[in-house]
Input
Amino acid sequence: MPATPTRREQILAAAADLFARHGFHGVGIDDIGSAVGISGPALYRHFRSKDAMLGEMLTAISEDLLAGGLARVEQSETPAAALGELVRFHVDFALDDPALITVQERNLGNLTDPDRRRVRALQRRYVEVWVDAIHAAVPGTTEPTARAAAHAVFGLINSTPHSRRLDREQMARLLRRMALAALAAAVEASSDSLIHSG
Output
């Protein structure tokens, strides 16, 4: 049985939903308080500001993605399995937390400078997990191709909040198949690059 969310987690979830629908600047502290059944000023017992709320939200997403990605690679027995698990993990995240993806895409510029630097650093490390996994699973893939493939797959999977038309399991299967097909295309791209450079 999943743990009951803390009041802090409830506030962040409500804020994520509101930020995704109305934008960071379109949401007031009273709107967030109303969504969780408390007054706006009462939120200040949990967060010092709306900026702090956004910073914690996007930092937590980035930390969870990095930790989850590393765990899946470490627990996989083969490079191909590791890449498959990374795809499954990111697809599950996209389908289960679409509001967070939307907030992350649209509101990075609204973070304070320290929070933005931290989030960007975590995001870069997550990309490297994918680049290393692609290298290991697809021998001969060049580093630029592996990096481009990782970002292309993120774009494909992260488009889910804007394009979901199927039920959860159907969408998960479709996204996994499409992501793995896109990664397989990295082999051809690397081969073409090596042929033309040779």
